[in-house]
Amino acid sequence: MGPRLQAVLGDITAELVDAIVNAANSRLAGGGGVDGAIHRAAGTAELHAACAELGRCPPGEAKATPGFRLRARWIIHTVGPVWSGGNRDEAAVLASCYRRSLAVADELGARSVAFPAISTGVYGYPPDQAAEVAVGTVGRADTEVQLVRLVAFDQATFDRYRDLGADPA
Ligand code: ADP
C-alpha cells in the first residue's frame, strides 16, 4: 500500500514533516522559486555549503542535506525535467523524482515527506499533467513513508491534487 496522500495549499518551508523536497537545479546551486524560498528559510550559507559538498545531481535523481533552520529535519533535493514538449521522457524523469525522493526518505528513516509541484515553475511542465504524475507515482510507491503532503502554491494545483484523490488538509 502506498503512503497516505494529502493536498496542502501554502508555503512548503513551513511544513512540519520529517523531510521536505526541494525542486533544485542540477548544480544544486540554489536559485529562484521554491529553491530560493527553501534556501532563505533554512539558512542560505549553511545550505549552500551542504549542497556544494553533494556535487551535481542529474534530472530524476535526489540527494539529501540537513534542514538546518527549517522545522523539517532534512531537505531532499531533486532535479525535475525541463519541459520541452513532452517527447523527451519528461514524464518518466518527473516520476523518477518522486520515486527517488521517497527512496532517499527511506534511507533517512523519514516517515513524512512534503513535495512541491516539481518542474511546474521555471521548468515549464504543464501543471495538470505534473499533478497526475505526482499523485500516480506517490500512490504506487513502494516506501516506508507513511504520509506524503503535496504542497500546492496556487489554488488550481491544490484543486487538481484533490480531484485526483489526495485528501484536502
Ligand atoms: P522548477 O524549476 O522545478 O519548475 P520552481 O521553483 O520554479 O521549480 O517551481 C516549482 C513549483 O513550486 C511552482 O508550482 C511554484 O509555484 C512552487 N513554489 C514556489 N515557491 C513555493 C513555496 N515557497 N512553497 C511551495 N511551492 C512553491
Entry summary:
By secondary structure, the protein is an alpha/beta fold. The protein contains 5 helices and 7 strands, in the order ββααββαβαβαβ.
Chain-wise SSE layout:
Elements: E1 4-9, E2 19-24, H1 33-42, H2 44-54, E3 62-66, E4 74-79, H3 90-108, E5 112-115, H4 127-140, E6 147-152, H5 155-163, E7 167-168
Parallel strand pairs: 1-6, 1-7, 2-4, 2-5, 5-6
Antiparallel strand pairs: 3-4
Bound molecules: adenosine-5'-diphosphate.
List segments where confidence is low: pLDDT < 50 over at least 5 consecutive residues: none
Q: What order do the helices and strands follow?
A: EEHHEEHEHEHE
Specify the CATH architecture.
3-Layer(aba) Sandwich
* Tally of discrete structural domains: 1
Share in helix: 25-40%
| Overall pLDDT level | 97
Name of the CATH class: Alpha Beta
- Radius of gyration (CA) equals 14 Å
Major pleated sheet: 7 strands, mixed
Strand order of the largest sheet: 3-4-2-5-6-1-7
Portion of residues in beta strands equals 15-25%
Bound molecules: adenosine-5'-diphosphate
Which shape, going by the Cα principal axes? Answer: globular
CATH homologous superfamily caption: Leucine Aminopeptidase, subunit E, domain 1
How many separate helices?
5
What class do helices, strands and sheet pairing give?
A: alpha/beta
CATH topology: Leucine Aminopeptidase, subunit E, domain 1
Number of DSSP strand runs: 7
Amino- and carboxy-terminal Cα gap? 20 Å
Describe, in plain words, how this protein is organized in 3D.
It contains five helices and seven strands; from the N terminus they run ββααββαβαβαβ. With 169 residues, the protein is an alpha/beta fold. It has helices spanning 33-42, 44-54, 90-108, 127-140, 155-163, and strands spanning 4-9, 19-24, 62-66, 74-79, 112-115, 147-152, 167-168. A seven-stranded mixed β-sheet has the order 3-4-2-5-6-1-7, with helices on both faces. The longest helix is centred in the middle third of the chain and has 19 residues, at 90-108. A hairpin with a 7-residue loop joins strand 3 (62-66) and strand 4 (74-79). The chain has a single domain, classed as Leucine Aminopeptidase, subunit E, domain 1, CATH 3.40.220. The structure holds adenosine-5'-diphosphate. Residues 11-13, 23, 33-35, 37, 80, 116-123, 151, 153 line the site of adenosine-5'-diphosphate (ADP).
